[in-house]
From TrEMBL:
Necessary cofactors: heme
Organism: Salix suchowensis
Protein name per its UniProtKB record: Cytochrome P450
Record key words, sorted: Heme, Iron, Membrane, Metal-binding, Monooxygenase, Oxidoreductase, Signal, Transmembrane, Transmembrane helix
Matches recorded under PANTHER family: CYTOCHROME P450 89A2-RELATED (PTHR24298:SF800), FLAVONOID 3'-MONOOXYGENASE-RELATED (PTHR24298)
Length: 321
């Protein structure tokens, strides 16, 4: 059932290749007819990587399909239901899916694309956000200290790791995460959207089917909405009189690191939980300091997400005796 280290490494390597080449391949979306001639070699590279992805994912998808068939047959033979004894995976949900309008199942190629999207969307985003947040906690030691003191007030001395329930008692932690997502949203744009009919939006006419997008990062940095927007100040999220900030934008949209509305990131709850859990534990267990003479460079670089141009380097000292 579980993947071995070698299989995990193969998935990681092929996904990493896709991510680091993402901007390079993105341009192929525009005028494919023209780029197929002008950027022939880039297309070749993309097809080669895609083939590698299929070689890695397809055997795993097929194995899952076979396991399901075997289970169904065994259930029939033994007149017993085995479904409860088995952990449902993302691939199982894809195998069961029937497209309602087209009345068909997904092809293996579509499943490979969805698995790839799910893996990248669910890991690269969160790890990028985590790195940006930790970089700010290294750059601003007073913020790190304030967070540590909050954690200390909630967690018993000597407790090895922080539990999920304890995170709910840490408003400053949540403010640090929100400020990280506002100041450094991993996605500076959402996925391409389209309007289903001609609309007038403000002063602009948006024709049916036109691709539209949102400038996620710029929204979070808008000086008309945020005071001193380029500064890292988690306190701004504590000033709302105890009301929790609505990250889904259902009341008002002041920032939208996960998008908003019907196509909002389906993993936002998990991502918030992961970020709170990792940041709290990393700060509870270690003191994070800048490497001597290093001022923590917050320059950006675009990959699949917008990452730190110079990845964080820090001195990490255990706090627990
Ligand atoms: C800090 C972490 C994350 C950030 C900043 C983030 C951000 C986003 C954004 C901006 C979108 C596009 C929304 C739109 O087009 O309107 C998106 C889509 C998506 N995200 Fe996340 N995400 C994060 C974590 C996750 C996690 C943990 C998962 C899964 C476990 C996930 C799965 C997805 C998927 C599958 C989509 C595509 C949804 C669709 O096509 O409608 N994301 N995410």
């Amino acid at each position: 059932d579980k993947l071995d280290e070698d299989q995990i490494k193969r998935i990681k390597d092929v996904q990493r290749q896709m991510i680091v080449n993402f901007s390079k391949f993105n341009i192929l979306n525009y005028w494919p007819g023209v780029t197929k001639i002008l950027l022939r070699n880039r297309w070749k590279e993309l097809f080669f990587l895609r083939k590698c992805q299929e070689d890695v994912f397809m055997p795993l998808i097929r194995a899952r399909k076979m396991a399901k068939e075997e289970r169904v047959n065994k259930s029939k033979e033994d007149m017993k239901d085995y479904e409860d004894e088995y952990v449902l995976s993302y691939v199982d949900t894809l195998l069961a899916l029937e497209l309602p309008e087209e009345k068909r199942k997904l092809t293996e190629e579509e499943m490979v694309s969805l698995c790839s999207e799910f893996l990248n969307a669910g890991t690269d985003t969160t790890s990028t956000a985590l790195q940006w947040i930790m970089a700010n906690l290294v750059k601003y030691p007073q913020t790190q200290e304030k967070l540590f003191m909050e954690i200390k007030g909630v967690v018993q001395d000597g407790e090895v790791s922080i539990k999920e329930e304890e995170l709910q008692k840490m408003p400053y932690l949540k403010a640090v995460i929100l400020e990280g997502l506002r100041r450094h949203p991993p996605a500076h744009f959402v996925l391409p959207h389209a309007v289903t009919e001609d609309v007038i939006l403000g002063k602009y006419a948006v024709p049916k089917d036109a691709t539209i997008n949102f400038m996620v990062a710029e929204m979070g940095w808008d000086p008309k909405v945020w005071e001193d927007p380029m500064a890292f100040k988690p306190e701004r999220f504590l000033e709302s009189g105890g009301e929790t900030f609505d990250i889904t934008g259902s009341r008002e949209i002041k920032m939208m690191p996960f998008g908003a509305g019907r196509r909002i990131c389906p993993g936002y709850g998990l991502a918030m939980l992961h970020l709170e859990y990792f940041v709290a534990n990393l700060i509870w267990k270690f003191e994070w300091k800048a490497v001597d003479g290093d001022d923590v460079d917050l320059s950006e670089k675009e990959e699949f997400t917008v990452v730190m141009k110079n990845p964080l380097q820090a001195q990490v000292c255990p706090r627990l005796k």
